[in-house]
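Complex record, two chains
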Amino acid sequence: MSAVVGEGGWLAVVGTGPGDSAWMTPETSAVIAAATDLVGYERYVERVADSGQRRHVSDNREETARAAHALDLAASGARVAVISGGDPGIFAMAAAVWETLERADHERWAAVEIRVTPAVSAIQAVAARAGAPLGNDFCVISLSDNLKPWAVIERRVRLAAEADFALAFYNPISRARPWQLGAAIEAVAAHRAPATPVVLGTAVGRADEALTITDLARFDPAAADMRTLVIVGASTTRVIAAADGRPRVYTPRLYPADY
Amino acid sequence: MSAVVGEGGWLAVVGTGPGDSAWMTPETSAVIAAATDLVGYERYVERVADSGQRRHVSDNREETARAAHALDLAASGARVAVISGGDPGIFAMAAAVWETLERADHERWAAVEIRVTPAVSAIQAVAARAGAPLGNDFCVISLSDNLKPWAVIERRVRLAAEADFALAFYNPISRARPWQLGAAIEAVAAHRAPATPVVLGTAVGRADEALTITDLARFDPAAADMRTLVIVGASTTRVIAAADGRPRVYTPRLYPADY
């Protein structure tokens, strides 16, 4: 951090990247090393090697309380790293911190210096494992309707499918949201061929990583869980053989003459 | 690399991340260190510290020739790192390598083990600097019509605007493509309020980094150049004050009751 304010406190929103620690940037490691306090969802904070910081862990759903707690700590002089799992700027804690700051409008938080550092997002890790499905225009959509109406999500999926984007789905499914992924796939299938490639990447970068390449016709929502990201190809997306025997999915840069 | 093939050669498509070397992942550094040959656009290869590898640099437009050269080197036993600037999976060399492999269908490339490693993309760095404009659903579109028809791009921008995605534009402008950015902004403005925030991030992570926060009404394409990325907010995207005096742009997770 180039400058600190108040009584020396600051708040940095960082991301570990997906599972594998080889994906955490040197900047993120340095910010965490400079922090006195780590705040985050238990599973993400656990990824950070213990170097003596105070740890404040909470459950997955409590982003607003977590952001408020982090702002309080920083306002009282702590150097706080708020830990997200992938990129903190994509469906993660960066927006939650700004949102909490603006909604509460607390005088005591006004002087807290806040910084966001970029990180590798899980969807990029899944894309890299799969080949290059996001090599051309794509959309990124969270299928969670906890904080936005399902009608908004459904409309976005439909228009993105109509526009022939490749689609990346975060938060595709959970016990409380069992049908949304099936509905989203159905909305895409109305605009795209049954053979359109679909990639499911689960726990990518972790020991139990799994990657499945299937297509719209054979897609089964039951193959996804909370740790899965789903990529649906554009009409131009292709599956090819690779030397290691594993097929790859990529979206070409060049468009066919008859497109 | 877990396994090598042929005469010990392999091809890894990696990304340095945007400008700042603190954004290059340890995995990417390790792959580059294990390589015998670096292949890429001159400006990106220059970012890699010299550790004795053979360097094969080329101009920005020559992705196909570069991919073929890298495949030839790997087939002849070299350990080749193809260097992209941001994330190799997003409008970069990963798709170019798979595309070249499939189109040429050369027997001599069939045994080359190919791997893609994820990296921080420039748009994520711009988003982090700006606050969290991509904190909710967003689309990523290259405005370059060198390899795809402008009608496809224009249609995608229009439908993404209609769906109220935040929009991230790669390759917004160049000497050969002077009007496309203005046309894209106009297409968005047809669906969104004049006060919608727009972020321009130029050379982010480099010494001459510049970040501009403006809005649709005041947007001037001349403020962008080849090294600029542009983010246009959704209807919910907000600008707020931050302690360091610089405004921030973020897209909330939570939707307003009257949305």
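Note: Chain A touches chain B through 81 residues (CB under 8 Å).
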